[in-house]
């Protein structure tokens, strides 16, 4: 955004806030005045949305603080001990899921854009074509995947506001071809959301 001139163009147009969401969440609420209001009330240059984890093993990153700065621990990097830790009320200590619904003030984006994000690695199953042209579908992880995540930019901020939302209203991810978090489950969550709005 910085290199292409998009940030400067937005500043010229008087745009102050930018919302960034994952394309894999069909219930992401693109314009939410409550989230903007929360950021303004807390005097934060960024805000994010969260849903409570379904269970300690749910495959989502979680909001936390690292070195007193906002951060997210990716699900592939959290230890079992941390994932299962609970407070005095029995609530998960690391239970605030980062659902990739983030609001940034243009000033925050300018700061973030000057820094490179680190890579995260994950050991996953990856299909491949062997030397004979056969498609191989491994049953065990066989490849490392390297990804950069926007949440690593959070630590550049002094603080950010986190707003917990209802899963059934704002989180229907598509992460797998079938089963959990698939197009089928996302479609059902979307239909349920529409039906409940009509009541």
Overview of this protein structure:
It is globular, with a radius of gyration of 19 Å. It has one domain: Spore Coat Polysaccharide Biosynthesis Protein SpsA, Chain A (Alpha-Beta Complex), CATH 3.90.550. By secondary structure, the chain is of the alpha+beta class. It has helices spanning 6-12, 33-41, 80-84, 106-112, 167-170, 183-198, and strands at residues 17-21, 46-52, 62-66, 69-73, 96-105, 119-124, 128-129, 135-136, 143-148, 161-164. Strand 3 (62-66) and strand 4 (69-73) form a beta hairpin. The termini are far apart. The strands form 4 sheets. The chain has a 4-stranded mixed beta sheet with strand order 1-5-2-10. 24% of the residues lie in helices and 26% in strands.
Neighbour order of strands in the largest sheet: 1-5-2-10
Instruction: Indicate the structural class.
Output: alpha+beta
Q: Strand content of the residues, in percent?
A: 25-35%
Instruction: Please provide the ordered H/E string of secondary-structure elements.
Output: HEHEEEHEHEEEEEHH
Q: What is the CA-CA span between the terminal residues?
A: 41 Å
- CATH H level, superfamily name: Spore Coat Polysaccharide Biosynthesis Protein SpsA, Chain A
What is the typical, i.e. mean, pLDDT?
93
Helical content (DSSP H or I, runs of 4+): 10-25%
Q: Rg to the nearest angstrom?
A: 19 Å
Low-pLDDT segments, ≥5 res: none
What is the total domain count?
1
So what's the CATH class? Alpha Beta
Largest sheet: 4 strands, mixed
Number of strands: 10
Shape, per Cα inertia axes: globular
In CATH, the topology is named: Spore Coat Polysaccharide Biosynthesis Protein SpsA, Chain A
CATH architecture: Alpha-Beta Complex
């Amino acid at each position: 955004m910085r290199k292409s001139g998009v940030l400067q163009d937005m500043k010229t147009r008087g745009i102050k806030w930018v919302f960034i969401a994952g394309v894999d969440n069909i219930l992401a609420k693109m314009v939410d005045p409550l989230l903007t209001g929360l950021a303004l009330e807390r005097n934060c240059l960024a805000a994010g949305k969260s849903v409570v984890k379904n269970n300690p093993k749910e495959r989502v990153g979680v909001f936390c603080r690292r070195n007193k700065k906002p951060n997210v621990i990716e699900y592939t990097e959290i230890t079992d001990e941390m994932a299962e830790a609970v407070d005095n009320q029995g609530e998960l200590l690391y239970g605030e899921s980062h659902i990739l619904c983030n609001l940034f003030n243009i000033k925050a984006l300018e700061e973030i854009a000057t820094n490179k994000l680190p890579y995260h690695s994950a050991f996953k199953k990856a299909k491949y074509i062997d030397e004979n042209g056969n498609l191989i579908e491994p049953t065990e992880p066989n490849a490392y995947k390297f990804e950069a995540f926007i949440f690593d930019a959070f630590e550049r901020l002094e603080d950010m506001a986190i707003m917990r939302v209802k899963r059934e209203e704002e989180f229907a991810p598509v992460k797998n071809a079938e089963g959990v978090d698939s197009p089928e489950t996302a479609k059902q969550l979307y239909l349920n959301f529409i039906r409940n709005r009509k009541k």
